[in-house]
């Protein structure tokens, strides 16, 4: 036993030494790949940019006001092996920000007269248990239906039928309408409602009624024609979890790459991610496409003003001063006069967030494959507020 422990200790020491060497090499690579592309020349932005480079941040940031891009910057590599830098056209997993598109699709169907947010589960599904028959689409949209958070892990096979049966037969966490309980399952049920109401697949409906009208050609699950060279890559060593980083360090001793891969290299169904993720996460997009989406919303070319009011309304308080709308967190500035909406998303390897200052026409978006560096984003949002927001 002592011999085994001794060998393990030597392995870990060696792995730490090699890992440090690899990290130093990686930091050098990131510096090379960090040439500013459209950096605001005011000192607060330069200071943030230099701090991000020095910290080892790897990702993409885009700040825009209307059509004008104020701050567009890639730092580090979307793919370390190929030394492919981040750009605003890098295809990324937008994670839980998928929910805003599910919510927008429900509102689009309401505009078309196919459903109402006040409709109940029993209008769309058979054999709904009595305690869930009165759950409304509004409650699913605001995470107040009382459903549990998750079904299976993101890349574990789960069909439409399995998700539906599990959601309808699982135990409620609270009575419908009584409390906020964040539920990915609830948004997957909404994706099924979209399919049942439109007679189209979830992705096909979003593609036809949301993405194409907004000019978004690089957003979806399977429909866009992406190249393998377009995708963000995740790495064990850059994961938010220690066990991934430990395995990466040990693996490097034996010459094993720490590459986790791209989202589409993971286990997916033919129509996109498995239904434990479908509708609540996993949509792929680019920051340029997301910029087009916010322009389309601002111009009312996707949803009417009345539907947007529903999208952005603060329905239920999540924490002090922060409310949930339809797929969005909603808050106000310190004066309580200007609305800020945001929604983040994260998994083991990626982190993403969007701050949309809707009364000022300014949007801040970022994505990273080094999620441990996410503390940089509040600093950037502070800079944006001070420089651009009234």
UniProtKB/TrEMBL annotation:
Family matches, as InterPro entries: AmpC-like, Beta-lactam-related, Beta-lactam/transpept-like
Residue ranges annotated for the Beta-lactamase-related domain, each copy included: 55-371
Ranges annotated as spanning the membrane: none
Protein name, UniProt field: CubicO group peptidase, beta-lactamase class C family
Domain of life: Bacteria
Any Pfam family hit: Beta-lactamase
């Amino acid at each position: 036993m002592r011999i085994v422990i001794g060998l393990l200790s030597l392995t870990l020491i060696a792995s730490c030494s090699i890992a440090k060497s690899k990290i130093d090499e990686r930091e050098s690579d990131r510096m090379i790949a960090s040439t500013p592309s459209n950096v605001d020349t005011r000192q607060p932005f330069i200071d943030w940019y230099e701090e991000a480079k020095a910290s080892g941040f790897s990702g993409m940031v885009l700040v825009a006001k209307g059509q004008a891009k104020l701050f567009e910057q890639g730092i580090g590599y979307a793919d370390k092996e190929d030394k492919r830098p981040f750009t605003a056209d890098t295809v990324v997993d937008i994670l839980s920000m998928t929910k805003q598109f599910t919510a927008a699709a429900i509102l689009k169907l309401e505009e078309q007269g196919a459903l109402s947010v006040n409709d109940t589960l029993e209008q769309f599904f058979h054999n709904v248990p009595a305690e869930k028959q009165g759950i409304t689409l509004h409650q699913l949209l605001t995470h107040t239906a009382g459903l549990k958070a998750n079904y299976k892990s993101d890349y574990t096979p789960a069909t439409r039928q399995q998700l539906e049966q599990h959601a309808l037969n699982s135990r409620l966490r609270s009575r419908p309408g009584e409390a906020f309980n964040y539920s990915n399952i609830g948004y997957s049920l909404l994706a099924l409602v979209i399919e049942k109401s439109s007679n189209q697949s979830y992705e096909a409906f979003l593609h036809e009624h949301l993405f194409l009208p907004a000019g978004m050609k690089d957003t979806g699950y399977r429909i866009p024609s992406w190249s393998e060279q377009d995708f963000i890559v995740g790495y064990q060593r850059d994961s938010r979890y220690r066990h991934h980083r430990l395995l990466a360090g040990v693996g490097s001793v034996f010459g094993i790459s720490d590459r986790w891969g791209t989202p589409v290299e993971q286990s997916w169904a033919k129509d996109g991610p498995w239904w434990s993720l479908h509708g609540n996460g996993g949509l792929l997009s680019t920051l340029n496409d997301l910029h087009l989406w916010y322009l389309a919303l601002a111009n009312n070319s996707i949803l009417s003003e009345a539907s947007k009011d529903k999208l952005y309304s603060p329905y239920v308080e999540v924490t002090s001063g922060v409310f949930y709308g339809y797929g969005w967190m909603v808050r106000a500035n310190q004066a309580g006069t200007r609305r800020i909406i945001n929604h983040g998303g994260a998994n083991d390897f990626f982190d993403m967030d969007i701050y949309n200052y809707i009364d000022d026409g300014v949007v801040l978006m970022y994505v990273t494959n080094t999620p441990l560096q996410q503390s940089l984003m509040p600093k950037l949002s502070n800079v944006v507020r001070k420089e651009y927001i009234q």
